[in-house]
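Q: Convert this sequence to structure tokens.
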Amino acid sequence: MIKIILLTIILILSAFIVFHTIIRIIRYYYKFPIPQFLANVIDNPLRRKIQPPDKTAIRHGIKPGMNVLEVGPGNGRYTIETAKLVGGNGKVTTIDIEKKMIERVTLHY
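A:
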């Protein structure tokens, strides 16, 4: 029974690695933005635990009153925390080639 479980885990991990490698190869030759529906996959609880949005801007040296340009804001979770940090005297501008990503940020802010 343990052999079957281990084999299943190994097969799942192998499939993930193969899938990830194929995607990386495709993205190397064909540049395209991340689709809007995948924003939630990237912005997940594990990432927020490793990179807390309220601490990430501080780690990047963002200070009150700064003007910040964020390229590829995703859901805007980090954008909002950055805007809180720069305060009323600062400004955060976001750009993305995927129009729906900017719409998501607008909905959150």
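The chain has a mean pLDDT of 88.
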